[in-house]
Write a structure and sequence with these properties.
about 525 residues, alpha/beta, eight-stranded mixed β-sheet, 15 strands
């Protein structure tokens, strides 16, 4: 039966503040604070309505009574006056000037009649000569970027929670970077030499700064690589399942993603070889380390075979090494990137600092050898010129500081703790959701739903229950073999929120028809 387990039914608990325990009684202090908050909100609305009714007494640009006068006249607090004036300013009724007061605003100009944009449907439709329609479905990306409503547990996030981000270290690095001589000038097109050298050293082997282009994060690097290596209409081989953001990039570029099945040991080389023969593809996109969404690591015996298979097909491998800095503290020693053992330039390596730091530290790198590097450089320059120098300087300051290693150790411990807590809660409350692989890196779990479970209905029910999860369908470039959901444990505040989120997901599972 869909979404039904053998565990005892867990009572549906009332919604509670995220991260808190379910109260057994309502505390008097909470009631008092809640009442005070509602009373203050009502006072703000009452004062704002009163001031609106008096606005016609003032001419355009005339000053309203001072805040002190309003406090005395309406017997409210200065905070209430400030918030009421802010509400009127947001509605365009008054203009506030610091140190001068509030003034009646000029009426807004009448709204312009809505135009007729229906012609765009024809202009945006696929050209008759275009082999693949280039409409873009960004839903799989937006689900991990959009912030859920307040009070909803964020199991669909794609970044570290603010509590895990190195905010102090980043702020200090940015401050130091801003004081560097020439920090606000034009950077080298390929990126700062010192930053390129740092990325080269993280790949290892004989990779040098000359093989590196600094990009505006991993997504930008993937976009550049796919555009450089495959013409519109061409097939591109992808792992199945795989990262929806990459599928969106490929489709937006007019490419045809072709799935190659993977298992807990990574992509299956014999199926990769068959896909190259069947399609004539010249590109394969892979995440050999902590793959998104499965968390799989490409098995040692498959690594060289994957590169050899691509080389025999005259194809490139785009290696998206997004999760190297999200390793857990109980992981085995990490394998080197595929690019480190590739003297022939088969592998185009993509790396980024964003996932291990902050969504706004969009600094990444492309690593390539041979003539392909010049094509990558040309497309990168045409698209974005260069990555802003202050951001590059800040990244360089960050990775060169003692705080960087401390941050990575903290993240490694915290992610392992959260992973174990989520897995244990799922085993207890949702044993019917299959977890085929427990990853030792990354920030999410990939769960298979019981046969017959309506994936869309479960995702919708979960949101109603107060927990946002990522549906599995966008991770497949063709029809999925079963329903899945991806749960992230990095975007929540801590362990209590993980426990509460799983309890809410249990309630959602019980809600959908079985």
């Amino acid at each position: 039966m869909p979404c039904r387990g053998t565990a005892a039914r867990v009572p549906v608990m009332p919604a509670v503040p995220v991260g808190g325990a379910v109260p057994t009684a309502i505390e008097p202090r909470r009631v008092a604070l809640s009442f005070a908050f509602m009373q203050q909100r009502s006072s703000v609305e009452d004062l704002a309505n009163s001031l609106k009714s008096e606005l016609n007494r003032y001419s355009i640009g005339e000053k309203l009574p001072s805040s002190r006068a309003l406090v005395e006249r309406h017997r409210v607090s200065p905070v209430t006056v400030s918030r009421a004036l802010a509400q009127l300013a947001a509605e365009g009724l008054v203009v506030t000037r610091p140190g001068a007061g509030a003034f009646r605003a000029a009426p807004r100009p009448p709204a312009v009649a809505a135009g007729d944009t229906s012609w765009q449907e024809i202009a945006l439709s696929a050209d008759a000569a275009e082999p693949v329609p280039r409409t873009v479905d960004a839903s799989g990306v937006l689900v991990t970027l959009a912030a859920p409503p307040p009070g909803v547990v964020e199991f669909n996030g794609g970044y570290l929670h603010a509590a895990l981000q190195p905010e102090r270290a980043m702020a200090a690095a940015l401050a130091r970077a801003g004081r560097r001589p020439g920090a606000w000038g034009r950077p080298p097109i390929d990126g700062l030499p010192e930053l390129r050298d740092w990325f080269a050293r993280t790949v290892g082997s004989d990779v040098t700064a000359a093989d590196v282009l600094v990009t505006a994060g991993g997504q930008s690097a993937l976009t550049t690589a796919l555009r450089a290596l495959a013409p519109p209409g061409a097939p591109v081989l992808v792992e199945s399942p795989t990262y929806p953001g990459m599928l969106a990039i490929a489709r937006a570029a007019g490419l045809r993603p072709v799935p190659v099945p993977a298992d807990p040991q990574g992509v299956r080389p014999e199926l990769l070889a068959a896909a190259f023969r069947a399609t004539g593809a010249r590109v394969f996109v892979a995440q050999p380390l902590f793959q998104n969404p499965t968390g799989a690591v490409l098995a040692p015996e498959r690594r060289a075979e994957v590169v050899r298979t691509a080389r025999s097909a005259g194809a490139f491998v785009i290696e998206d090494d997004f999760a190297r800095r999200l390793v857990h503290d109980d992981a085995a020693p990490l394998p080197a990137p595929l690019a480190a053992d590739d003297p022939d330039g088969v592998v185009v390596h993509v790396s980024s600092l964003t996932k291990a730091t902050s969504p706004s530290l969009r600094v990444g790198a492309l690593v390539a050898r041979g003539p392909v590097l010049e094509r990558l450089r040309a497309i990168h320059v045409v698209d974005s010129f260069f990555v802003p120098r202050p951001l590059q300087e800040a990244a360089l300051e960050l990775v060169g500081s003692p705080a960087w290693r401390r941050h990575l150790r903290t993240v490694a411990t915290e992610l392992r703790t959260r992973r174990d807590a989520m897995a244990a809660a799922l085993r207890l409350h949702l044993p019917e959701l299959a977890l085929p692989h427990l990853p030792s890196g990354g920030y999410h779990l990939w769960l298979r739903l019981p046969d017959g479970t309506d994936e869309g209905a479960l995702v919708a029910a979960a949101l109603r229950a107060g927990v946002a999860v990522a549906p599995g369908r966008p991770y497949f470039s063709a029809e999925p073999p079963a329903g899945h959901v991806r749960l992230s444990f990095a975007g929540v505040a801590g362990l209590p929120e993980i426990a509460e989120g799983v309890r809410r997901l249990r309630a959602a599972c019980d809600e959908i028809p079985g």
